[in-house]
Known about the structure:
Residues about 1-30 have low confidence and may be disordered. The protein is an alpha+beta fold. Helices cover about 25% and strands about 30% of the residues.
Amino acid sequence: MRRSLLPLCLGLSILACDGETPAEPGVCDASLEGVSVGPDCAVAATVLRPAARVDGAWVRPDGPCTAEGEGLRCPSAAGALLLERDGARLRAGLEPDAPVTVEALVLEGPLALEGATGWISNGFHSWSQSGVIALGTLPDDGALLEAIGARGDTEVLRTGTELSWEYTLAGGGETAMLAGAVGSARWRPWVQVGYAAAEDGDDEEPARGLTLRLGSGGIERVAAAAGEPLFGEPFRVAFGAPEALMAEHAAALPAYDSSAEAEAGWNSWYELWDTVDEEAVRANAARAEALLGPRVDEPLRIVVDDGWQRAWGDWAPNEKFPSGLDGLAADLSADGFRMGVWLAPLLAAEDSDLATEHPGWLVGGATYQHAKHGTMRVLDVTNPEVEAHLRETVARIVGWGYDLLKIDFLFAGSFEGERTEDVTGMEAYHRALSILRDAAGDDALLLTVGAPGLASLPYSDSWRVGGDIALEPFGAGWAWLPNQARSLAARYPYCLRVLCDADPPILRDLPRAEVEAGAWIVAFSGGALFLSDDLRDLEDERADWALTEPRVEAALSGAPAWPEDPFGVDPPRRLSNAIGDHLSRGGASTHVVPRVWRLPDGRRVVLNATESPVTVEGTEVPARGTVVLP
């Protein structure tokens, strides 16, 4: 990983800096209360103090803070608010005077970031809308808590103005700031950057100054005993050049020690949907070998997606697979293919055998409403019987010959609810992913989908970086492509730590320029190259449009492309979504997407997601088009 040349100065107001070789060594400002963070010791860009939400109300320091080790101890109505520091990592805490229920722990303070125009608003999981938006006024508590509590499709279609999950990059001027969590063991971590709410006669946002908030929780309810410290998640804050900040943050993230390399193949989902059957898989495997096989060096991966199972929760092959999944895998493996299969291991349809026969296995008060299949129940992984069931299910499927598991809808495992053990949703999520990882074994690959990025990294070989590239009710269309690119740009640090799957290039129906643009977006991810049209009906030339040598090489490189201008010249006020664009804009995209992407080998590609031609560095790029810069 690349390391920033700009120093990180973290220190108490009365302590010397201990960052990486400060340009001007010195003592941090002694007049500031809190932990000061800035590009060097002479500049405190923010001064952070702890706060907490306790029994439904915010509590903040109500007197002078004092140094405690390298951290702070601040008096409040609920007890001692704490700021713990471990090198460059900071976390908020509370040591209550009496037993309380803690809902959130926060570090907050003013932020000086000259010339800043925008910030990354990251969605909670793979499909959630993510991208750069303009800096605006911080929401009130009601809007913040509503955004923290949103789940399912409501969260996916977020506008992003209330908070960014897990991390953000803010900037647009000479210096950028990255603030992000490096853990999510108990709480959902989030970040806010914005202007303070207006007071009478003061409606100019820049005049009010920016605020930075680093939050842990908001919907959790954690009991804290008197005199026992309770801490939030650890965060990093740093200032410098955007690309270096992103790489440094990536290096600090926990991740699974995977030896997986980017793979190529075919996935059954994006045209066959859940009508997939054994005959279609066999025929498409042969066509994939003809179209894609000669262009790659490794055996192709064939992934059987949703539609093979009896029901969600009842993970046995249905009548459309007369050979069983084991027989199918045996035949295709003998033909030189590697096999993968989809499942949603943490959900069960309300009328499935699992849900009706084992009601005690389900999380109380937690459901997910699937747009097509109705109410889904969430499995309680803290129940030992559920753990044994998941281990048996995963081991059985791997034993059929499927050493890639595309595990989907994982976000549901983080829902709050009544479980056998009193744990938060995030604690349950980590328990679930640990079980699945262990049951699959080190030789199997886990592709995590619909999955929170930070919490999934310690268990994933690859991670879906964005939303679906086509939706069954609408089919294929241009609107989904810029959505994928915007997510990829917003999640660059994660793609430095895990193989990012940006979904397949869609080859059918789209004009040639859009097929090529979709193929470049996949190439920008560097993490996979799967086809997903029904190849039996596809003209060979459409594969030729997408699968050029430079795109194939980049898609399988194992490293993402860098979006050179992450903030752009005019960030939007809020995030749009592909469904809205498809329905109300005739497929034209309102997404603001970085234009110039630099591949790991140094080549630079322009992606023009607008409806008009643009000229970049003297090169004209057509609407909805891509061009490699000379």
